[in-house]
Recover the amino acids of this structure.
């Protein structure tokens, strides 16, 4: 997390949105503290909730530390003062399929834009800290089908390719009326394994 903060410290980040999973919140916390920003938690930026294949036997979201903490309580290694007021994002369905996961990522990104400005505005950079699937679904949500550089999660039922590395940055840039992938899965740390990813849509 400290290496991520050091890497992105010079970036002109205007807002930070995170998955409700603790490892994603903890990854973003040092950078938020350094930049004087709050962490906006959106449940729809969380893990891909697949039940088949033994991924999850039950819905994990209600049991996350973010959901079970007392009001205004700190999280491990994350002071409550870094957490923005809960934006009331919905709990994704469980179990979920490809289309529902894509839909919730589209809805989460719309909440991002409504918080920091419309995606058609002239400038701004948002950091989204989530998971491997966050990279993929954000690309499909903003760029459209067939625009993913590796084809991950391109079509329902398609066998996904290996996930991007831990920890990595995917950068999406708005050009004209559309979005483009500037970089995908760029590693951000030299050692260790923090199971989260950062996606930075530049508004």
């Amino acid at each position: 997390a400290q290496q991520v903060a050091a890497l992105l410290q010079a970036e002109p980040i205007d807002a930070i949105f995170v998955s409700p999973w603790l490892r994603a919140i903890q990854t973003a916390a040092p950078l938020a503290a350094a930049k004087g920003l709050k962490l906006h938690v959106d449940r729809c930026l969380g893990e891909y909730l697949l039940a088949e294949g033994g991924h999850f036997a039950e819905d994990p979201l209600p049991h996350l530390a973010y959901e079970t903490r007392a009001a205004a309580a700190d999280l491990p290694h994350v002071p409550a003062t870094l957490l923005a007021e809960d934006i009331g994002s919905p709990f994704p369905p469980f179990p979920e399929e490809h289309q529902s996961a894509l839909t919730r990522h589209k809805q989460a990104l719309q909440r991002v834009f409504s918080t920091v400005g419309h995606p058609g505005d002239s400038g701004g950079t948002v950091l989204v800290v989530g998971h491997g699937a966050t990279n993929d679904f954000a690309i499909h949500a903003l760029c459209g089908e067939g625009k993913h550089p590796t084809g991950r999660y391109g079509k329902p039922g398609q066998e996904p390719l290996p996930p991007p590395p831990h920890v990595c940055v995917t950068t999406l840039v708005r050009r004209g009326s559309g979005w483009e992938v500037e970089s995908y899965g760029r590693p951000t740390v030299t050692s260790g394994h923090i199971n989260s990813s950062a996606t930075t849509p530049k508004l």
Observations:
- The longest strand covers residues 178-187.
- Residues 191-197 have pLDDT under 50 and may be disordered.
- DSSP finds five helices and six strands in the chain.
